[in-house]
Design goal:
Blueprint (H helix, E strand, L loop, with lengths): L7 H12 L11 E4 L8 H8 L9 E7 L8 E3 L4 E4 L2 E4 L2 H10 L3 E3 L10 H11 L4 E7 L4 H15 L4 E6 L7 H12 L3 H8 L9 H13 L3 E4 L14 E4 L7
Parallel strand pairs: 1-8, 2-7, 2-8, 3-6
Antiparallel strand pairs: 1-10, 4-5, 9-10
Helix pairs in contact: 1-2, 1-4, 5-8, 7-8
């Protein structure tokens, strides 16, 4: 059972409890790393990052996730005019969707990878609890080629640099994989982008949503963001070690 079966009241209660454990809203957050599937095992951890948002800072939220199969349309975006969850409808930013298509030939308005089970709808449940005044866009990465992953990272960085937009990258690494998390952190902190790409494409990694994760790291590096993954106080919880947020300045792990 995932978060799409939760009521607005249940999600709001989780967010309110999370706010009691940190310093409150962070107006400088530009991107989140959120679990692909949000359920009772990682709900508290997900509430932590979402409770830090002030949605009045964002006009549009772009949810980026990996697709398990390789498609000819490498970076598909759903053709919907709105996305609908149990909490209601969210309009799609059609202008931005077309802008991505104009910016790069690998972006397509294409529905082959779009299903009711994608992570988009789980992220929207949090966002709709926080606000009813934003637009959304779904981007899927349907080719593991490192060149494509770099490409989407650079396009997102360039198009969104001056926009009031929030980026959410859906990816996860099980809480038991602390040694791998440490290895990934070391590569990120040393800005070893090639090493990270090679490792995540080697088949050794247990990260789910690797292409989305790498794209997020590329954007964070380009924007010189501080990168904070929730570790320490959540070590005894199940859920994704990659749950985190990024705000201004440079890429570090706190």
């Amino acid at each position: 059972m995932n978060i799409t079966s939760y009521s607005r009241e249940q999600i709001k209660e989780g967010l309110d409890k999370a706010r009691e454990r940190h310093e409150g809203v962070n107006d400088h957050i530009r991107l989140l790393f959120a679990p692909e599937e949000i359920n009772e095992d990682n709900f508290e951890r997900a509430c932590d990052i979402y409770s830090r948002l002030d949605m009045s800072n964002y006009d549009t939220v772009i949810i980026v996730e990996s697709y398990d199969e390789k498609l000819d349309k490498k970076l598909p975006m759903a053709s919907n005019t709105f996305f609908e969850t149990p909490l209601g409808k969210v309009p799609v930013n059609d202008y931005m969707r077309n802008e991505f298509c104009d910016e790069d030939d690998d972006f397509f308005i294409h529905d082959e990878a779009f299903t009711k089970n994608i992570s988009l709808f789980q992220q929207l449940m949090f966002l709709q609890t926080l606000s009813d005044d934003f637009e959304a866009l779904s981007v899927q990465i349907a080719d593991p080629d490192p060149a494509i992953v770099k490409e989407i990272g650079y396009v997102l960085e360039e198009v969104l640099a001056s926009r009031s937009a929030l980026l959410i990258f859906s990816c996860e690494l099980d809480n038991e994989r602390k040694e791998e998390f440490k290895k990934v952190v070391e590569m990120v902190e040393s800005q070893n982008e090639s090493g990270l790409l090679n490792y995540l494409n080697s088949g050794e990694s247990q990260i789910k949503g690797t292409t989305a994760f790498i794209a997020g790291i590329i954007v964070a590096n380009k924007w010189k963001l501080d990168l904070h993954f929730l570790r320490g106080k959540y070590d005894d919880y199940s859920g994704s070690l990659l749950t985190g947020y990024a705000d201004h300045q440079k890429v570090i792990f706190s």
